[in-house]
Amino acid sequence: MAQFTDLLSTAFLLLVLYHAIKYIYRISPLHPLVRFPGPRLAAMSNLYGGWFDLSWRRSYVKELAGMHERYGPIVRAWPNQLHVRDLDAYNQIFRVGTEFIKSPHFYTNPVLTHSFFNITSTRAATARRAMMMPFFSRDAVRRAEKTLLNPIIDKFVDILAVQHANISDDGSRVVDMTMATRCFAADSVMNFEYQKPLGVLDAPGFQAAFIHAMDGFSATQQWPIYFPKTFGAIFRAIEMLPRWMVERFMQPFALTQWVQRVCFERIAALQEGEAGLEKGEAGLEKGKGAPTVFDIALNPKMEKGHPRLTREELAADAFLFMVAGTDTTADALTAAVFNTLYNPEIHARLRDELRTLRPKCDSSGWAELERLPYLHGIVKESLRLSYGVPGRLPRVVPDAGAVFCGQKIPPGTQVSCSIFVYHHNESAWQDSFMFKPERWIVSENHNAEAVAELEKRFLSFSRGSRSCPGMNLAYANLHLLLARLFRRFDMELFETGKEEMEWKDSFVPMTRGHLRVKIREAED
Ligand code: HEM
């Protein structure tokens, strides 16, 4: 009898223990995490207020897309952190004048300190952006086409034609297109900003040290996001070291500091006017009086609500434009070249279309090229499948709270949206992983409404007050450069397949290998 009572009380105790554990588990923050494919992702998700995005793992955002397929449009990482894949939610979060501020845990990168990228408040960032946005409008970019965009494009294609490449056995040249497009983008953005390029296109074989340094930085991007204080402290400590020491032992830092100095000197030169333009390694050429991106910011009008920026802030914005515009533009160009060459039918259709232009299309402008349906389709697909910034873009739910997909979301919740996830929502994009320029072309079985619907779901430049200010510049460069490249050269892939083009999320996508192409002047 005693044994039976013992057994019963043990069973009872076990039952109580089981329910106690279950209860503790249910009220503990671990509870929502069981819905995740494994504890790895969950384990550190609450650290520093972000998802632990395991960005060294190639499949992170792909896992996220899979979770949405399994669990619906809202996936929780933590009670106060969630990921949404719903167009209405996106448009609510990323609208003009949004009250969903950028997450202060995420937008902390010390390399971008003083720039408006790290300003979380929409109002403060908008006031600052407003001074520069007129120079990025469609009209402004069109006006700059001949004087600021084309000279860099001409230089790029001329280099491809004559220099910097190894001649292979069959007489064609092998070009590292991953590096080439990034050198092009960095020089193009800098030229657009100050009418003077950075000079990286001149690096032999496009192997510019600064572009390699940017790679080094991209590879460490999870650190400033998850360990902002530690990374910030390390960064500040490095800034205090003597320059020779940084140059000797920390090349990526040294090169980044060099470009930051170039930006600072160029801003100083603009501030000091003509006298300043003549001095300094980064001095602008005398006599080039066209307006620059910083004209309004250098002469702010208080009555219009313009903030007065310090030289550090202006230089930080100049540096921001350069880094924000380099990898993104180059990734889209790389995606365009790779996918076009990988699919012979797409390549042939593009070549046929470009042959309708004046010889070698050297004088065709952006407006004309944009009207070429197939080229335009290639540009759109390249942007869709290079994603711009594929990861989380976290924002904070405002005091009024929010409603996503019928669910009430409390204030203070951190909500993330991934462009990668949206662009691979199969219910919106059929065969989402396939490169299909024709999906953007109005045809017999694909009407204008269907294309307009895709536009609504196309998020490469994000939306609203914090969307990409460089969108028009990027579109112009993509149309102009791709037309020139495919019209002037015969190209084929060289030892580059899908495996080399696989990527991981380092804020921007970083491919496993480089895109290399054989290139020779086209005869027709
Ligand atoms: C294919 C090219 C490009 C793509 C796909 C792209 C995409 C994006 C995206 C998605 C964002 C939002 C990021 C976020 O919310 O954290 C962004 C922001 C930004 N982009 Fe771009 N971008 C491109 C080119 C450029 C160029 C050429 C420039 C400059 C000349 C530029 C400057 C910026 C800046 C300054 C921001 C920060 C905006 C802010 O914080 O308010 N981008 N871009």
TrEMBL record:
Pfam families: p450 (PF00067). Its cofactor is heme. Heme binds at residue 468. Transmembrane segments: none annotated. Keywords: Heme, Iron, Metal-binding, Monooxygenase, Oxidoreductase. The keyword Ribosomal protein does not apply. PROSITE patterns: CYTOCHROME_P450 (PS00086). It comes from the Eukaryota. GO terms for molecular function: heme binding; iron ion binding; monooxygenase activity; oxidoreductase activity, acting on paired donors, with incorporation or reduction of molecular oxygen. InterPro entries: Cyt_P450, Cyt_P450_CS, Cyt_P450_E_grp-I, Cyt_P450_sf, Cytochrome_P450_monoxygenase. PANTHER family: CYTOCHROME P450, CYTOCHROME P450 12A4, MITOCHONDRIAL-RELATED. Belongs to the cytochrome P450 family. This is Cytochrome P450. It comes from Ramalina farinacea.
